């Protein structure tokens, strides 16, 4: 039972975090001040791409769990590879974004690591 709770909670949290990442894109780009149109497009693209990647991980985990359960080999592989991906993304966020003034970026490593731990624990508990 606790395994399922960890998996479902982790997937919902990371989906919501992905959405929370996408929604303020316009204001985040404005926060960079006067930069070229090309740089604005690149920042917008990258900001949205990370949010979509987070949503994809959460949706994948959710779909695999709903349709395949959380105890089969394929589900476990999806959970563990998702956890590894989130942990790598957390490390990247920690190294590059934690010193910014944007509060959400400061919480990114914590949220991603917490969900990665939840997904991994969902495979071993």
Structure description:
The N and C termini lie close together (9 Å). Helix 1 runs antiparallel to helix 3 (37-68). The protein has five helices and no strands. The radius of gyration is 16 Å and the shape is elongated. The model has no long low-confidence stretch (mean pLDDT 94). The longest helix is centred in the middle third of the chain and has 32 residues, at 37-68. The protein has one domain. It has helices at 2-22, 25-30, 37-68, 73-97, 103-124. It is mainly α and 125 residues long.
Task: Provide a short characterization of the protein structure.
The protein has helices at 2-22, 25-30, 37-68, 73-97, 103-124. The chain is mainly alpha-helical and 125 residues long. The protein has one domain.
Uncertain stretches:
none
Shape: elongated
Number of domains: 1
State the total count of DSSP E strands. 0
Structural class by sheet pairing and helices:
mainly alpha
Total of helices: 5
What distance lies between the first and last C-alpha atoms, to the nearest angstrom?
9 Å
Q: How confident overall, as mean pLDDT?
A: 94
């Amino acid at each position: 039972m606790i395994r399922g709770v960890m998996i479902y909670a982790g997937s919902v949290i990371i989906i919501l975090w992905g959405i929370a990442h996408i929604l303020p894109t316009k204001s985040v780009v404005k926060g960079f001040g006067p930069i070229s149109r090309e740089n604005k497009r690149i920042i917008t693209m990258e900001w949205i791409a990370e949010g979509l990647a987070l949503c994809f991980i959460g949706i994948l985990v959710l779909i695999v769990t709903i349709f395949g359960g959380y105890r089969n080999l394929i589900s476990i592989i999806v959970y563990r590879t998702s956890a590894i991906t989130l942990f790598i993304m957390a490390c990247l966020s920690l190294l590059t974004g934690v010193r910014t003034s944007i509060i959400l970026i400061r919480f990114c490593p914590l949220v991603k690591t917490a969900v990665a731990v939840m997904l991994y624990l969902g495979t071993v508990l």
